[in-house]
Structure formats: C-alpha cells, structure tokens
Queue: 2 jobs
Job 1
Amino acid sequence: MSDWRKDNFPRPRARLPLDAEDWSWHEDRTSSQRESDLNNRTALDREAPRAENYRPGSSRPPGTKSKSGRPVPRMPKSRPETQVRSKGMTLAGTLLILGLTVLAFAGGKLFGRVEEPSTSPPVETVAQTVPAPQLAAAAPELKPVDETRIALPATFERPPIVCLDPGHGGEDRGFARFFENGIPAMEESMLVLEQAWDLEARLQQRGYKVVMTRETDTAVNVDGRDVNGDGRTAAHDAPRSNRNKNLDELQSRINVCNTADADLLVSMHVNGYSTGGPHGFETWFTRERPFGDRNAVFATLAYAHLKEQLAKADYVLPAEDERGVLPDTTADVQMEHSLFRHFIMTGPEVPGVVTASKMPGAIVEALFASNDGDAAVLSTPEGRNAIVTAYEHAIVEYFERYPPEAK
Ligand SMILES: [Zn+2]
C-alpha cells in the first residue's frame, strides 16, 4: 500500500516517521538532537497525557466517543454476622487466600492486564467450595484471576515459538514526549514493553512458547559488546552517530530470536514524528527474504487486526489516513555504501555486518505517541487492550495459516 503519499503533513525526510530511524539507523540525527527537538515542542508537551494520571473520559481524543471504563468485578461488602466464624470457616478462608495468592503469582506477568469480558467458566479453586458470605469475609478485595488455558489446535505438531521484540530500552527511550519541565510524559520504550508483557502472558495462556528480546527496560546489548563481529562498537561511533551502537543492539535482538529458533519475530513499536499531525498505525515487512510471502502475510494480519480492535475502542480512521502495510524498500532508510536497503531486524544478511533473522516477522508501529489523540488512546487500558489483542489475534491467525511442524 502507498497511502502515505496522500499525507499532507510536512516530512523533512520524505515519508519515514521518526521512529523508524531507531530500528534502522541514520547518521544525521542523534538521539540528543531529537531530545532537544522534542523539548522545544512546548505547545505539544503541555497537553501531554500522563499514563498514571489519565482517566477515561477526562481528555478523550478528538473524534472518539466518551465511554465509561469496564466495570471492575468486586466481591460484596462483608456483613457483621460473618465476622463470627467457626474454625472450619477460618480454615476455608485461609485456604482461599492461599489459593488466590498462588494464582496471583502464577499470573505474575499480568501486570497492567485488562481482562476482556469472558464467558469462560470460573476458575476451579477452593473458592468455589466456600459459601458466599464466608468468601466475602475472607477476601473482600481480591479479584478473580483468569487462568483459563486455551488448547493448541490439533493441527499444531508442537507449540509455536514467538519472539517478541519490544523496541528500544535503556538509554534509547524510543519516541518520547515531555512535560514542560522536561520530565518524560510518555516513552515508547516503556509503552511497548508493557504491551509485550501483556502479550507474552496471553500467548502463554494459549500454550505458545514466548521469548522476549528484553524483559525489562534495558538495552539488549547492555554491555556494549561487538555483537555483529565487525570489530566495531559504540566506541567507534563518530560524534552524532549511533551506527555501530545500533548495529550491535539490533544484532543482539536478532540473535535472541535465532537462538530460540523462533517461528515468528514480532517487533513492537509506537510511532513518533516531529509534529503532532501524523496519526494512525502501519506495519513494515521485508519482501526480499526466502519467507517474504509470510512476512507480508503477518504484516497484513497485524494491520487488519489493529484496525479491527482499535475500531472496537472507538478509534476509527478516515480511509485517507490509513497508513497501510508497507514493504521496507519504500522506507527512506539511509544507505551507507548501498549496504542497507532494508530494515535490519527483518532484512536479509549483510555480509560481515548483519546476520539475518531466520524466521518470518514484521515491524509494527501501533499509533503515534506524538499525536495527542493517539497518545490518549495509548494511555488508556482500553487502548492498550485493543493493541495487545490485535497482536494476539494476528499471531494466532498466522499460525492457523502456517501451523508449526515438528522440528
Ligand atoms: Zn520504535
């Protein structure tokens, strides 16, 4: 697709949004430059929504309908008479707390997870054997934990292995927006990490194996090693260049996926631009690989499911604002000695410089943190749920089409 040609916002570097510079690389724009650019955008920054302060309805993105948050299930208030309990009742209550605690730990990565309304049967625990009044007295504040496992389809000869790559991390914050006082209001690095944690838990519930290029908000090549083996590290970078640093970092991520023998690589990003205009989502893929068709299929699925899920959260783009599924040859990737014609994460081998990923995959840019409306969606539980659900459904549909075969 080439809907980007219809964009009428200024694009100093042709059509590539800022964020793509981070998983490709450019010599002409350092992160410190970008930071100062962003700090100068005070009008934008002043309105920056802050994830922890945001409440649905308080500053809805323009064009979206106000909608109340999902009801949080609560146990009934305890009644005075339930405070008189037999020893048996107390034991039952203790068992209940133990049971729910174990469940809570088992779901350790469910941090920030927004549960979808579920028609699945209730969790089979000791809780079900305790009469309602005692249940309320024992654990008035505990919420039900959804531990429902989804069986793998019979066509799968083994569990799929998915490599999730939340972009950026550590010093590299990805796209960030700041309050007037310079405090980050929203950082891509953390946004995509939280999405990845949520997605990892959901895929594991489906019996998938998941490997993450990073589990925390750090770089993958945290020690600054020469990972791609070209004899160069960040120490060899010219001023204002992150070339070697980025090459080693991206190679670290590719290596994580390759070492895990993953079936699919999902690089998770949030977009950003130097002005607040651009909005929406896009997916990028590399055609020029042995599995180029599968790359295109996954990029197309990710796009379609983002569109579907965001629409359910009242985020609907006019057709002319759809950014589309984009082959990376249309991106304005700076080339040095014609080495880089593709994004490194999904691109082919560059002898002596890049060892390619061995599996299909795509790069997803889910909304623009630089756009006020998009940023508000990114900040809400509903918005994040839509994005993570889109990833989940795209991955599931991909493997329904290409069931994993025994290795
Ligand atoms: Zn990014």
Job 2
Amino acid sequence: MAETLGWGIMATGLIAELFTKDLKASGLKVRAVGSRSIEKAKAFAGRFDIENAHGSYEALVADPSVDIIYVATPHPQHAPCVRMALEAGKHVLVEKPFTLNAREAEDIAALAQDKGLVLLEAMWARFLPHMRRIHEIITAGTLGELRSVQAEHRQFLPQDPSHRLNAPDLGGGALLDLGIYPVSFAFDILGAPISASAAARFTGTGVDAEIAVTMKHGGDAISTSVSALDCAGQNAAVIYGSKARIEMAPVWYTATAFTVVDYDGKALETFDRPVDGRGMQFQAFAMEELVQSGNLETPLMSLKQSVSIMHTLDALRAQIGLVYPSENE
Ligand SMILES: NC(=O)c1ccc[n+]([C@@H]2O[C@H](COP(=O)([O-])OP(=O)(O)OC[C@H]3O[C@@H](n4cnc5c(N)ncnc54)[C@H](OP(=O)(O)O)[C@@H]3O)[C@@H](O)[C@H]2O)c1
C-alpha cells in the first residue's frame, strides 16, 4: 500500500465539491475524480488540481493511484457504486444514507467484510470535535441517567420536482436525506431503538416533505425529531439526563458549540472550538487511520450500526407508506 493514501472522488455534485475542498485544505491526497461525463470529470479535476479525470466510475475504481473511493452519488446509486469499488479492491467512504434500504446495507457490509476492506458511512457529524467531547461528558456521568434526545433538521431545499430530493427514483424525501441525521444521532447517544414510529406530510411527487420520528430506546429513554425539506428550522438539539442537559447550538450536526447546564441553571461547561473549513475532514482522518492501522471498523460509526440504522429507516418508511420505485422491481 502507498505510504500516502490516495483518494478518488466518485461523482461531481454538491457534496463531492464540499468534501474535496476540505480534503485538499487538510493536505490529504486527492488523486482522481470519476464522473459519468468526462467533461464534468475534467472540469472538477481542473477546479481542484487533481491529476486524473475519468469519464466513468469503472475507470475511477481501476485507477492504481487510488486507495480510497469516496462515493457521492444519489442514495439509490450508493450500493452499486460501493459494490463496484469494493470489487476493485478499494476501501470506501460512502455518503449518508449508507444505502437506500437495509437489504442493500446488509449486502455491501457483507462484501466489505469478505474482501477485508474498510467500508465507512460518511455520517460526518459523528466525527466532529464537539461530538467527541459530548461522548466524554456522557461517559463521565455528568448528565446522570440519559432521559431523552430532541433534535430538529429542517431546511428549505430546491422545490424542483426533478431534483434528487423530490424525485422518488433518486431516493428523494426528508427522512433519508435529513431525518437520518437525528435518527443516527439518537442511535449514537441512546443506542438502537426498541420501537420507532413516524408521521409524515408528503410532496406532490410522493416523497416525505416532513417527518416526525419518536423512538423508544434502552434504559427507558426516548428520542424525538422532526425533519423537513420545504421549510427552514433553527436546527438545535438537546440531550437530557437526570442531572443535567447538553444544549447544542444551531446547527447541531455541523461543527458547533454546546453548553452543559445543570437543573439549577448553572453552566457546567461550554464548548466552542472552531474547525477549519466545513469540518468534513475529520471523517477522512478516521478513514485513513482505519486503512493505515489495518482495522476495518471504528466505534464512532460501526458497520453494524450503519446497517441497523437502515433497518430503522425501513421501518419508519413502512409506517408512512413510502416505497421507492427500485424496491418494486
Ligand atoms: N454529508 C453531507 O453534508 C451531505 C450533503 C449533501 C448531500 N449528501 C449526500 O451525498 C449524496 C449526493 O448528494 P448531492 O447533494 O451531492 O447530489 P447532487 O448534487 O445531485 O450530485 C450527485 C452526483 O451523483 C452523480 N450521479 C450518479 N448517478 C446519478 C443519477 N442517476 N442522477 C443524478 N446524479 C447521479 C452525478 O455526478 P456525475 O454526473 O459526475 O457522475 C451527480 O453530480 C446523497 O446521497 C446525499 O445524501 C451529504
């Protein structure tokens, strides 16, 4: 393996741009980009000074200068793209949601394990410094017994019916794009739920515009969240314990500040540490550490939990009656 790991960017959309910016600014090596269009690949490579531009994803995964593929395609393309990269012997960081559904999640998780390759879900919020400190505070017992987690994720996003967020065949809807953040957050703080229920409001295209999720976790704890793609929210979050709570400032799933407040109203700790760029580099550092160390998983975002989250998202979609076209085939 190369001493310095080489990254290959699969797709040239919005998040591929933002992540590549953070990778480059952090000094990590982006060696190639792959697009379904050679013109787009060349333009992207030009913008980020990347040596190799490929006009297909197949050519990207065959590039010997690449060790890690970052998959930034729409949700239904995650599983086939991850499969292609793993089959070519590459480690993979795949955007959230891990896949479209649990069946696909089980499939690619098993393939990564068979191949002995790292497969990590790019739930970047988990890798941010404020989340690491929150876990230390919880482990130290500062909050007492965990009671509940409350989080919001509402954004006013493009209303164009053909945009991937609104298009059923591109895995549109609030739950898989936005709701996954508070659902994954609840898993991270309280563990996998014992039960989960949802209520939704739909777009004209037939995907969820807004979804409220309530989950019951071990230790009698509960989590609640509301996510929407057609109205903007404040996007704060709170973790409540028996002795104190953590108030996470907007926007809680980006690099943010928080305060630990006891029930006399006293601030026990304030965390406010800016990060460079958007902060997406922390998941890349974790990915590189895994590859360099030979470990396949990090407790920050285990493969088992990525699969388990997809099972919960499936169960929530079943309750609101949302089935994607590829699931009917
Ligand atoms: N972590 C975050 O903060 C964050 C933020 C936004 C999105 N995401 C995730 O990243 C993924 C991509 O989101 P995005 O906002 O970057 O989407 P986007 O701007 O629409 O870009 C998606 C890219 O995927 C490629 N693609 C492959 N098959 C496609 C198809 N059938 N239709 C359209 N595009 C296709 C295209 O690249 P080529 O034409 O170059 O092949 C396209 O540019 C989603 O799964 C989303 O959940 C994460």
